């Protein structure tokens, strides 16, 4: 297990480093001068030259990439070209909003999806199971930003039950919670369907296994068999699905943050793309990539801990 | 082919999926004939109308007929999905076979490349690319191609590895067959089936991605109609009228639902073992 942890973590680090290098090469290989893009079409050659020096673009490519990595190790992602604040500070300031949003969406999805899947599995092929199956697939296939638009349209604009924009007052927890309801619902809805189907499938599989039969043969109550023995095993696959799904979660968080004009890393990237604030775009894409790699690594480790068979595959 | 179709329409969900997909594909193909108006023709006096007999889904802020825009938007959605998935499939097949059949170091290198590409959250990667090269449909297609290659590549690699160890491949090698012959004649036909299913199940994801990026203004340029850009118009008009949002979202939901059900029933048909895992 220790060997696996070391190898898997090393792989994660290598992937992050490669991803950073890839992103860096992309900036430099794609035609177009970042300095010119930042300053816009009306910039004078002098301004462009000055901006190039400021961004270090005048140095030879190998020096640039070495400097970039060296700065990265010191936690320096460069400076915001507009406000002149360190990019790290800006990104880390926005990150908690996105993390809370994602975390609560998963909690919401689990609270609804897992019981739904469990109930469907135990009442297989009934009308309820069929309806829940259809509804789950519809939830999964509807893009989260479409859910967000409808949520905004119905609950914020038409009914005025929830606020439409922002994240609420900083000191006021209740206000913040109220502002989270619709975004969490928008991101979580697809996952309600996803977890419901996942838990249903794995529950059906677990119920076939011999230890469940044994537990029944011992005369344990059906309730105990289901909640104590079957469900515990059946929700295991959700762990790895959530880890791997982090990429989707980050992507849907981005779109949802924009629909609800919520602060967060997604909105930060979007705004920086619009204002052509290059260093901030790269910094925040980098941080979200690290987050994604971290969560897939964690989910692989948890999986390996729970199921020793998966350790061999690396 | 007809046998597969017969099986698909036997199940209610398969039939439902096929009907939805056919409906949207046909309406997109015939958009030029069926659409009652020019999708980009301005008609300011008739702006922001609710649905009526003249405008089935109403009009947008520039008086353009939403129904016609939705029909033409289907072309963009399907065009992007088919182009991107087609190219990604081709590249994925080549890279996956190289990884599965080539030397071990090459396999490791390609796998690492796949893992690296997959470590970018798609929409964020797309935005970073747009920041560099500017918004356009080509950028969207390129991003989708790059981010979906690893999915296909991995499947091809696994299948190649498992087929490679079969005795009939060894026999071919002993008889002196070229690698290209083995790959093209024996391995490729064996992996096409699963790949097609995978591709058909990816179409909704890709369509949703294109819509998402166009919604952000990172995809098609105005005035080209796309479901995403219709939704974007609807978003800015959300306090004025709900119709653009409804017009842009309904076909999007229908087609993703349709392709998902169609893909699932195709998968059940070709590989019943997979039926258990959703």
Tags for this model:
heterodimer; A: 314 residues; mainly alpha; MetI-like fold; 14 helices; B: 278 residues
Describe the structure.
The complex is a heterodimer of chains A (314) and B (278). By secondary structure, chain A is an all-alpha fold. Chain A folds into 2 domains: 43 residues, no CATH class; 225 residues, MetI-like (MetI-like fold, Orthogonal Bundle), CATH 1.10.3720.10. Chain A contains 14 helices and no strands. Chain A is globular and about 85 Å long. The mean pLDDT of chain A is 85. Chain B is mainly alpha-helical and 278 residues long. Chain B has a single domain, classed as MetI-like fold, CATH 1.10.3720. In chain B, 74% of the residues lie in helices and 0% in strands. Chain B has 11 helices and no strands. Chain B is elongated and about 75 Å long. The relative contact order of chain B is 0.16. The model of chain B has no long low-confidence stretch (mean pLDDT 84). Chains A and B meet through α1, α6, α7, α8 and α12 of A and α5, α6, α9, α10 and α11 of B.
Question: What's the layout of helices and strands?
Answer:
The complex is a heterodimer of chains A (314) and B (278).
Chain A: H1 2-29, H2 34-39, H3 45-55, H4 61-73, H5 87-122, H6 127-141, H7 144-158, H8 173-207, H9 210-217, H10 222-234, H11 236-244, H12 246-259, H13 265-274, H14 278-306
Chain B: H1 2-10, H2 12-29, H3 31-34, H4 66-101, H5 104-118, H6 122-133, H7 137-164, H8 167-174, H9 179-215, H10 227-236, H11 243-270
Note the beta-strand portion of chain A. Answer: under 5%
CATH superfamily of the largest domain in chain A: MetI-like
Largest interface summary? A-B, 60 and 44 residues
Average pLDDT metric of chain A: 85
**Terminal-residue CA separation of chain A:** 12 Å
Uncertain spans of chain B: none
Shape of chain B: elongated
Strand residue percentage of chain B:
under 5%
Portion of residues in helices of chain A? over 70%
CATH topology grouping of the largest domain in chain A: MetI-like fold
Structural class call of chain A reads mainly alpha
Q: What do the pLDDT scores of chain B average to?
A: 84
CATH topology of chain B, which one? Answer: MetI-like fold
Multimeric organization: heterodimer
CATH class bucket of the largest domain in chain A: Mainly Alpha
Architecture of chain B in CATH? Orthogonal Bundle
The biggest beta sheet of chain A is recorded as:
none
Number of domains of chain A: 2
Helix count, DSSP H or I runs of 4 or more residues of chain B: 11
Largest sheet geometry of chain B:
none
Which value, in Å, is the CA radius of gyration of chain B?
A: 22 Å
């Amino acid at each position: 297990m220790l060997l696996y942890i070391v190898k898997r973590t090393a792989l994660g680090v290598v992937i992050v480093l490669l991803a950073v290098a890839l992103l860096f090469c992309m900036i430099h290989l794609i035609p177009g001068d970042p300095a010119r893009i930042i300053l816009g079409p009306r910039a004078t050659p002098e301004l462009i030259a000055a901006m190039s020096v400021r961004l270090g673009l005048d140095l030879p490519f190998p020096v640039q990439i070495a400097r970039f990595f060296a700065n990265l190790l010191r936690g320096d992602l460069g400076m915001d070209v507009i406000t002149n604040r360190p990019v790290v500070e800006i990104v880390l300031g926005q990150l908690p909003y996105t993390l809370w949003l994602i975390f609560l969406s998963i909690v919401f999805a689990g609270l609804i999806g897992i019981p739904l899947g469990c109930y469907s599995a135990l009442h297989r092929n009934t009308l309820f199971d069929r309806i829940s199956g259809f509804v789950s697939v519809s939830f999964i296939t509807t893009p989260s930003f479409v859910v967000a638009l409808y949520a905004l349209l119905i609950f914020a604009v038409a009914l005025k039950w929830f606020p439409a924009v922002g994240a609420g007052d900083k000191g006021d927890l209740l206000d913040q919670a109220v502002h989270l309801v619709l975004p969490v619902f928008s991101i979580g809805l697809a996952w309600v369907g996803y977890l419901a189907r996942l838990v249903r499938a794995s529950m059906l599989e677990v119920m076939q296994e011999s230890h469940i039969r044994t537990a029944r043969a011992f005369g344990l109550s059906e309730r105990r068999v289901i909640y104590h023995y079957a469900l515990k095993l059946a929700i295991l696959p959700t762990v790895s699905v959530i880890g791997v799904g982090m990429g989707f979660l980050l992507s849907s968080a981005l779109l949802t943050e924009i629909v609800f004009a919520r602060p967060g890393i997604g909105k930060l990237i979007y705004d920086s793309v619009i204002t052509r604030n290059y260093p901030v775009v790269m910094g925040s894409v980098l941080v979200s990539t690290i987050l994604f790699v971290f969560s897939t690594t964690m989910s692989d480790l948890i999986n390996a801990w729970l199921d020793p068979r998966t350790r061999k595959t690396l | 082919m007809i046998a597969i179709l017969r099986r698909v329409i036997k199940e209610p969900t398969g039939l439902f999926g096929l009907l939805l997909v056919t409906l949207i594909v046909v309406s997109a193909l015939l958009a030029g004939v069926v659409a009652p108006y020019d999708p980009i023709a301005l008609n300011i006096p008739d702006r922001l109308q609710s649905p009526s007999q003249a405008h089935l889904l109403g009009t947008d802020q520039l008086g353009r007929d939403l129904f016609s825009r939705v029909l033409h938007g289907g072309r963009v959605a399907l065009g992007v999905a088919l182009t991107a998935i087609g190219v990604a499939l081709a590249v994925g097949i080549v890279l996956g076979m190289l990884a599965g059949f080539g030397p071990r170091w090459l396999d490791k290198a390609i796998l690492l490349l796949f893992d690296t590409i997959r470590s970018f959250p798609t929409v964020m990667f797309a935005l970073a690319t747009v920041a560099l090269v500017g918004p356009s449909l080509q950028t969207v297609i390129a991003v989708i191609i790059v981010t979906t290659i690893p999915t296909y590549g991995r499947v091809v690699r696994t299948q190649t590895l498992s087929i490679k160890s079969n005795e009939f491949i060894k026999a071919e090698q002993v008889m002196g067959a070229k690698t290209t012959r083995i790959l093209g004649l024996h391995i490729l036909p064996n992996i096409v089936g699963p790949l097609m299913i995978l591709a058909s199940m990816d179409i909704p994801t890709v369509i949703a991605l294109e819509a998402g990026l166009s919604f952000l203004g990172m995809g098609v340029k105005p005035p080209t109609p796309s479901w995403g850009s219709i939704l974007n118009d609807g978003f800015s008009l959300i306090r004025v009228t709900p119709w653009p949002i409804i017009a842009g979202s309904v076909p999007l939901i229908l087609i993703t639902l349709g392709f998902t059900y169609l893909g699932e029933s195709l998968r059940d048909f070709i590989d019943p073992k997979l039926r258990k895992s959703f």
